[in-house]
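Anyone? Bumping this.
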Amino acid sequence: MRRPTLEAVAARAGVSRATASRVVNGQTTVAPQIRDAVQRAIDELGYVPNSAARSLVTQRTDSIALVVSEPPTRVFSEDPLFSTVIRSASYELEAVNKQVVLMLASSAESHARVERYIAGGHVDGVMLISMHGADPLPSALSRLRVPVVSYGRPAVPVEIPYVDNDNVGGAETAVRHLVGLGRRRIATIAGPQDMIGGQDRLTGYRNVLHDSDHRSIVAVGDFTRESGAVAMRQLLRDDPSLDAVFVANDLMAVGALQSLRQAGRRVPDDVAVVGFDDIEAARYTEPPLTTVRHPIAEQTAAMVGLLLRLFGEGPAVPVILPTELIIRESA
Amino acid sequence: MRRPTLEAVAARAGVSRATASRVVNGQTTVAPQIRDAVQRAIDELGYVPNSAARSLVTQRTDSIALVVSEPPTRVFSEDPLFSTVIRSASYELEAVNKQVVLMLASSAESHARVERYIAGGHVDGVMLISMHGADPLPSALSRLRVPVVSYGRPAVPVEIPYVDNDNVGGAETAVRHLVGLGRRRIATIAGPQDMIGGQDRLTGYRNVLHDSDHRSIVAVGDFTRESGAVAMRQLLRDDPSLDAVFVANDLMAVGALQSLRQAGRRVPDDVAVVGFDDIEAARYTEPPLTTVRHPIAEQTAAMVGLLLRLFGEGPAVPVILPTELIIRESA
DNA sequence: TGCTCATGTGGGAGCGCTCCCCACCCGGAG
DNA sequence: CTCCGGGTGGGGAGCGCTCCCACATGAGCA
């Protein structure tokens, strides 16, 4: 009980394999009644082209891998980053008739499997999301002869076109806003320093403080809500007189707000708070969170565009998207 | 600049294509020094087998699709169900050298794409996670001539082997526990009734109440924390004298505990609470949550086993895994 | 010495498809 | 009536691989 082949379709329609192939691929040089006959045969037999045979000759698969090189705990968290990227990438690639294949690469073994899968020619290209410095995948994938683009600047210097948002600039704008508010002791809760976003946002904070002659007060979290709460308590112990805090992501900012409330500090009267990411929850905190928005969907679309340009042999240069300060009530 | 072929490897090693193929596929009938020569040629050329050509002849791809037919908001939520299934399925299939390809099918268009992808022979089999009654995928996939198994009983009657946990039995055990505690007015917060888990857990609740001559008090949530809080307030309005509540999942139970606290009810003294799922957070609620544990990883492993049996032409009968009542302090 | 037989190796077909190239048909022009 | 040319259709090669079968080689035994 084998699947019907193009040969069978052609025989049933009384035409050659070549003509049947033309109909399947929508070529216009086929006479209408022949086209109809072939179409009928296809429907009757339930014919579906064998993708292996097709891609053997075309050297294309029309599938794109989206490799998420993060531990599952982070991928499946409250942070909507990954779900937005996945949805948006699928949407963009559907428009050009390509299928997204999602692969999670957390452990060393899964890295190896992903690499083998891609080296085997299962996909035409790779979109990589990898935020950690120690990640071996960016360099490993760039060695394979496969078009690769990255969401976010790769942590290691490697020849991969990428799309990123302006983390440094966004952080600078946020801290400058706090300075403009007349705040004197501006602390920060930084993200993990083995992640590119964590590094860049801290750099932005430092740039502004340095220029404006403030002292920096730093605590480091790991981008989770809980770590934000812990870091905030730490900061309050370190410098009880602080009157502002720039938090490197909204999830930690939510935790920080909670710690501030427990410590009896009013926001923004006693302490102004600015977050980063503009997640959904930022609108519903008490008070609503001032934060830096970066356009995830646009960034993803730009990444897809970059990959398509790679297919077309066009030049693919890194893209940096601007961020926007969303002023609510917390600062 | 093409990828090297087996032909090239054979030529470089001074052997035939057949022998080179034997080495690549680890057959033992090759003389050691020839094996070494071929291996050296492979390494020098950086040869990787072309998967399209291979699967064209073997009729296998060694890839398995894991189709998650849920909206991304649910997949990427606090509920660790999906991340556990994905991780566990990958782990199990790695052991038999198969690659998991993850596909999200939320919209009607993505259903169509997934169907086409599978019909095109990209994968050897499909693991389906689909909880909603209206979902067209189970029947659509079962029509294709592809081995399909399901995580959870399909909502529509369809010829797909599945692995499920004993939702009805688990709910019965939970409610019987409340009855045994001497509780008289036992309410429930049910899950969405278009989902199989929501239905079954409500059935279990009704079975026990009916047998033990209690009155049923039902509110319906949608498995989110917030909906649990809302439903609990609703129940307290409906019947202020209730002294126990069975909640269809832990996330809603967390919300319910919050509402009970706000209403000034002590748990378990005034109101006993039992949840379902035994998520991580259930240990850290105040008080820790009594709940029904079902083994997600084991269920996933059983599902993988079912699929492998399908490949081996073995009989594949539905598997129902037992649940376990975890008694903590809330009931 | 001649035969068998196990062990390794090579030749070649064929998986299902696309696409190049050529043959054919028909209408219109000379 | 012949010839030409554009539009249609078919033949066939070949994508890179696996696997069946034939065959070479040398050890072991009569």
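Late reply, but here is one note on the structure posted above: The two ends of chain B are 69 Å apart (CA to CA).
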